[in-house]
Write a structure and sequence with these properties.
The chain is an all-alpha fold and 71 residues long. The chain contains five helices and no strands.
Length: 71
C-alpha cells in the first residue's frame, strides 16, 4: 500500500489497507495509514474517523496530525 501512495495511486492504497483491516482488524496501523490517503484525496472527515479508530486500537497517533484533522 505504501508503494501505491508513493506512486500517487491512493485508491489502490486504500484497497490494500482495507484488505489488511479484514485480515487483522485489531491492528491500528492500517487505519492510521488509510487516514493519510484520505487526506491526500481531500476527505478530512474519513481521515479523522480512521485516526480515531486507530487510537481506539492502541496505535500511537500523532497528536498534531489529529488536531489538524479536527479543525
Amino acid at each position: 500500500a505504501k508503494i501505491y501512495v508513493r506512486l500517487g495511486k491512493t485508491d489502490a492504497a486504500i484497497a490494500d489497507y482495507q484488505r489488511a483491516m479484514q485480515i487483522s482488524p485489531e491492528q491500528g496501523e492500517p487505519y492510521y495509514s488509510r487516514s493519510k490517503c484520505y487526506v491526500l484525496k481531500g476527505n478530512k472527515a474519513l481521515a479523522l474517523k480512521d485516526v480515531e479508530k486507530a487510537a481506539s486500537l492502541g496505535y500511537p497517533v500523532d497528536q498534531a496530525y489529529y488536531q489538524q484533522l479536527k479543525q
